[in-house]
């Protein structure tokens, strides 16, 4: 590193794990320490500002495009950085946790990009966090090949997806590391360890350190990330502007600051992604108390709803005006076990990708290798030999604040089946998450932290508006816990019930279910750590 070590250190509180020492080297921990020392205070202030903004909006303050930055939006002269090597053609991006086998499968999947996910698709057990870093390092070093006991071989092919890493969001902490007696921001751990070990290796391989940034709520959080990148590059002697990052627009407040977010990150920006599931979660969380934001069953809120079309149209228009990629979101259908379910899932995904490609997106996400071909086919049909369609500026897509908030047109009460499904999904997902699995297929759909959040906040919203009564929810809760216990005798039923009660049934809605569940259930401190 080009500067001296921090005077205050990151302290490791976890017991040693298999090969963890290869990631948690003194130099890597010093590097993370530098980042934490520099940014921990600002992160804290920004989290406080999130709470203040939530209170303002709950009290009826209007949400609009910020007046203070009108000049940034009006100035058509600025552009984001040119696409970096490996990021020009992003027609298909596969996402998933950096589990060892899935890492090989994702890199070989035929997708152009693999989003290695420490956020929605990962349950942040310490083993998953450090194991994920090891898998990334081993993949980049091409030493990840393995043969299972059953004889199945996993070998990296010749043409691999470009890696983009999604660190955990600003709201989460990593409690196996401590700085000044306090847990460390998880974003800086995931970003810092990957950057320290892999940034130069990726540059040497002809790519670079690339990221996806989740759950940002405003331009100040984008500025914080940009400053993290500047310092990280400086510390390791990597030229400024080497990092690239795609920001997920997946909160309702960030939808009003898309231009500003691109502007803040412009020297490191790789565009925006329409993170539809967290977006819906954020919308319900932010305006859940208002009757005009009462949403029906999740299955009835599709991407053709006017307020969601407004969001994706604005995203494409904003990106393309600034020379940035606009990347589509996740259709939740995953290939089924039988042929009919498989065909139905593919048809749903095809429709979703067709709409995105026609709207001007430059590529999109899939959750499963079996969906890569359909997404590629659709985008091939629109892009042909062009790597993207950034030149399509979508000046026709005029979107107002009212369009983004016009939820009333799809609002309405849930069906009994919708209530049961949300409870079933939340419970099953919580159980998987507590056991270390952050993404699961349930009832033909991919479920992860974002979709599980929707399930629990919908129940909260329906109870609050009395369109479902507490007795019904408690009866369904008993039924679904019994069904879960019958299917999975090992399920942590008491913990799952308590988590559901705390995060869906209390009058005060917790902002996320993950910090509570993490601190209570996933943290394992070594008794003798010093
Ligand atoms: C809202 C959002 O943020 S979306 C982004 C975050 N969410 C995700 O990334 C979810 C990613 N997807 C997944 O994790 C998985 O596809 C699941 C959990 C939904 C389903 O997984 P499974 O039940 O294992 O699916 P299935 O049995 O069909 O898998 C078949 C093979 O494909 C592999 N596979 C499935 N999905 C992926 C993936 N996303 N990446 C790499 N490999 C994958 C499996 O590992 C398995 O390979 P194997 O036979 O070599 O072990
Ligand atoms: O991260 C993606 C989302 O839809 O949420
Ligand atoms: Mg998300």
Automatic annotation (TrEMBL):
Gene3D superfamilies, per the entry: Malate synthase, domain 3, Malate synthase, domain III
Enzyme class: transferase
GO terms assigned for molecular function: malate synthase activity
Signal peptide (from-to): none
Residue ranges annotated for the Malate synthase C-terminal domain, each copy included: 415-519
GO biological process, one term: glyoxylate cycle
InterPro entries membership: Malate_synth_C_sf, Malate_synth_sf, Malate_synthA, Malate_synthase_CS, Malate_synthase_TIM, MS_C, MS_N, MS_N_TIM-barrel_dom
Pfam families listed in its UniProt record: MS_C (PF20659), MS_N (PF20656), MS_TIM-barrel (PF01274)
UniProt pathway annotation: Carbohydrate metabolism; glyoxylate cycle; (S)-malate from isocitrate: step 2/2
Keywords annotated in UniProt: Acyltransferase, Glyoxylate bypass, Transferase, Tricarboxylic acid cycle
EC number: 2.3.3.9
Ranges for domain Malate synthase N-terminal: 18-65
Catalyzed reactions: glyoxylate + acetyl-CoA + H2O = (S)-malate + CoA + H(+)
Active-site residues from the entry: 166 (proton acceptor), 448 (proton donor)
CDD domains recorded: malate_synt_A (cd00727)
Domain Malate synthase TIM barrel: 162-406
Cellular compartments per GO CC: cytoplasm
Family the UniProt entry places it in: Belongs to the malate synthase family.
Official protein name in the record: Malate synthase
Lineage of the species this protein comes from: Bacteria, Bacillati, Actinomycetota, Actinomycetes, Kitasatosporales
């Amino acid at each position: 590193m080009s500067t001296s070590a921090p005077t205050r250190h990151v302290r490791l509180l976890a017991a040693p794990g298999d090969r963890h020492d290869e990631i948690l080297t003194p130099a890597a921990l010093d590097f993370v320490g530098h980042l934490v020392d520099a940014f921990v205070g600002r992160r804290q202030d920004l989290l406080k500002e999130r709470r203040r903004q939530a209170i303002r909006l709950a009290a009826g303050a209007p949400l609009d495009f910020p007046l203070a930055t009108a000049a940034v939006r009006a100035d058509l002269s600025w552009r984001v950085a040119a696409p970096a090597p490996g990021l020009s053609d992003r027609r298909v991006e596969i996402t998933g946790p950096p589990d060892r086998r899935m890492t090989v499968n994702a890199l070989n999947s035929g997708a152009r990009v693999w989003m290695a996910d420490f956020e929605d698709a990962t349950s942040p057990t310490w083993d998953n966090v450090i194991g994920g870093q090891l898998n990334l390092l081993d993949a980049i070093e091409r030493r990840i090949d393995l043969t299972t006991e059953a004889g199945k071989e996993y070998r990296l092919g010749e043409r691999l997806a470009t890696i983009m890493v999604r660190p955990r969001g600003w709201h989460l902490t990593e409690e196996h590391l401590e700085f000044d007696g306090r847990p460390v921001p998880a974003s800086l751990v995931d970003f810092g360890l990957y950057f320290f070990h892999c940034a130069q290796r990726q540059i040497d391989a002809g790519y670079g350190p690339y990221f996806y940034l989740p759950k940002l709520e405003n331009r100040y959080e984008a500025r914080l990330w940009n400053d993290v990148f500047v310092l990280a590059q400086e510390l390791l002697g990597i030229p400024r502007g080497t990092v690239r990052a795609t920001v997920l627009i997946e909160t309702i407040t960030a939808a009003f600051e898309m231009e500003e977010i691109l502007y803040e990150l412009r020297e490191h920006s790789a565009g925006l992604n329409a993170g539809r599931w967290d977006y819906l979660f954020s919308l319900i969380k932010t305006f859940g108390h208002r009757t005009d934001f009462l949403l029906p069953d999740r299955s009835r809120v599709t991407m053709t709803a006017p307020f969601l079309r407004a969001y994706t149209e604005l995203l494409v228009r904003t990106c393309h005006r600034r020379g940035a990629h606009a990347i589509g979101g996740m259709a939740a259908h995953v290939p089924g076990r039988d042929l009919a379910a498989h065909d139905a899932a593919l048809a749903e995904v095809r429709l979703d990708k067709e709409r995105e490609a026609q709207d001007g997106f430059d590529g999109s996400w899939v959750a499963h290798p079996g969906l890569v071909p359909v997404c590629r086919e659709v985008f091939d049909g629109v892009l042909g030999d062009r790597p993207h369609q950034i030149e399509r500026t979508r000046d026709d897509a005029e979107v107002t604040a009212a369009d983004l908030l016009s939820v009333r047109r799809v609002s309405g009460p849930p069906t009994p089946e919708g209530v049961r499904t949300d409870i079933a999904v939340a419970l099953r997902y919580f159980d998987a998450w507590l056991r270390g699995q952050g993404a699961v297929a349930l009832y033909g759909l991919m479920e992860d932290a974002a979709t599980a959040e929707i399930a629990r906040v919908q129940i909260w919203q329906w109870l609050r508006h009395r369109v479902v009564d507490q007795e019904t929810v408690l009866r369904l809760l008993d039924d679904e816990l019994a069904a879960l216990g019958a299917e999975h005798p090992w399920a942590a039923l008491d913990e799952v019930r308590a988590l559901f009660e705390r995060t869906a049934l209390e009058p005060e809605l917790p902002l996320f279910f993950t910090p509570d569940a993490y601190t209570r259930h996933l943290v394992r401190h070594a008794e003798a750590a010093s």
